[in-house]
Amino acid sequence: MSGAGLVLLHGRGSSARDIMALVPLLGAGGLKLAAPEAPGQSWWPTSFLAPMARMEAPLAAGLATVERAVEGLGLPRDRVAVLGFSQGACLALEYAARQGAGLGAVIGLSGGLVGTGDAPGEIHGHREKRMDYDTDLTGLRALVTCHEADPHIPLVRARISAEVLAGLGAEARFIAHPGPGHQPMPDGLAAAREILATL
């Protein structure tokens, strides 16, 4: 067993068992693993783009769950990565932006930051969000992926999320998959494997 660990966060309507199916594809079988499961199989009941008034309570509960999972691994934080898909990716990225200081890596497959508050402008029929984090993410390796035409995750939000993480000091990479879709892709999984191999 490696001295490194991985917290996996499933998507909406999915389960811990489902996200664990990615472990062989990530080459993460030797890592210490944790895969918490959301109540009712969803970290929050709506799009991550919903107004913050609707997001705050379930988001706080999700962030607390991730923190418990990270601590539960019993490893130095810089040897731990948090990876999520879809809604789980949004939670993983938001956890990193708010509480990721000292963490080894964050990987969001088809996801984007939730944000810290409502802001002027509109995105996919919702208010835009502020991204005014003050976390020092120096040393964090971050990966954000998204399809160019993802029905759930606006590409622009995913791209901005990588930029925000980089602005906080993370070594961030963004991968846009061509065309429509909403699933982990080979190039994203390969990039994730590279990150996890260096924990």
TrEMBL record:
Keyword field: Hydrolase
Keyword match Cytoplasm: no
SUPFAM superfamilies tied to this protein: alpha/beta-Hydrolases
Lineage of the organism: Bacteria, Pseudomonadati, Pseudomonadota, Alphaproteobacteria, Rhodobacterales
InterPro entries tied to this protein: AB_hydrolase_fold (IPR029058), LYPA1-2/EST-like (IPR050565), PLipase/COase/thioEstase (IPR003140)
PANTHER family from the UniProt entry: LYSOPHOSPHOLIPASE-LIKE PROTEIN 1 (PTHR10655:SF17), LYSOPHOSPHOLIPASE-RELATED (PTHR10655)
Domain Phospholipase/carboxylesterase/thioesterase: start-end pairs: 73-198
Pfam families: Abhydrolase_2
Family of this protein: Belongs to the AB hydrolase superfamily. AB hydrolase 2 family.
Keyword match Hydrolase: yes
Protein's name according to its UniProt entry: Phospholipase
Superkingdom of source: Bacteria
